[in-house]
């Protein structure tokens, strides 16, 4: 009885030592290569690594069966085997996630194009979810096959696999459709994480893309959960499809006596001192007229949709204040004729 306990304690000590040694090695390699973030990210794998090591050592030494005096595969040895398989799956998921995240961080550091970064971010995020789902399914299947009852009914399961596949395909048609739609969105580059989209008249920013749904953060911080199949089957607006910049427009209904040239100069003066204007384009034009007013449109570019919205609000307020203070007669008035 004493010897199995010693083996058990030695296994735990060896597991802790191996986990500490691997963590220290990753920390030193990461310090030597700070431009490669994958080494620091791999340190997150310490817990599943220790579980894998301890279960492998317990399975090899088998001290639990000697302590509990249990024989057969359904005893502690089988539980350790299940733990080993589960921890291996967990470790694989963590390693894949760390490698993909490290590749994305390095790509973001080297590429200055926001559109390309968003595209790669979306694709890597979707790839990570697909690989993780496959690893989980394979791990669960292998764990189930360790039970003798599952192995005994394997032949009947294979014989009825065709019928089960048809039934499952019909029952999960919507889920499978969303799954393949998610892959199409990720690698078809129709919408990406960080894009500004308009869905059913509601504008928001794509916050997350999963295998089944897409999360859009609205202007008031509400989250709109949309099935990914929506973005494949229905039209939607993507304001940052190619260029994250955007053209902001301000419409003003003014009197016919408005000095347009002076208003144009005032717009340029205010744009030059505004931090949200990117300096690319601007214009002020009279786009329409009515019997009582003219329609003046001021346009300007910004780096992102959020900057464009804020710039539009500020310029509208500043132009109205300018007209009120300098040219009050330019503000629209209701004319009446007395008799």
Task: Report on the architecture of this protein.
The protein is of the alpha+beta class and 339 residues long. It folds into three domains: 2-110; 174-238, SH3 type barrels; 246-330, 2-Layer Sandwich (Alpha-Beta Plaits). The protein contains 13 helices and eight strands. It has a five-stranded antiparallel β-sheet. Strands 6-8-7 form a three-stranded antiparallel β-sheet, with helices on one face. β3 and β4 form a beta hairpin. α5 (76-110) packs antiparallel against α6 and α6 packs antiparallel against α10. It is elongated and about 100 Å long.
- Overall, the morphology is elongated
User: How helical, in percent, are the residues?
Assistant: 55-70%
- Give Rg in angstroms: 32 Å
Give the amount of beta strand, in percent: 15-25%
- Which structural class fits the helix and strand makeup? alpha+beta
End-to-end span in angstroms? Answer: 117 Å
Q: How many separate helices?
A: 13
Please indicate the count of domains: 3
List low-confidence stretches.
157-161
Element string (H = helix, E = strand): HHHHHHHHHHEEEEHEEHEEH
Mean pLDDT: 78
Would you report the number of β strands? 8
Summarize the main sheet. Answer: 5 strands, antiparallel
As laid out across the biggest beta sheet, the strand order is 4-3-2-1-5
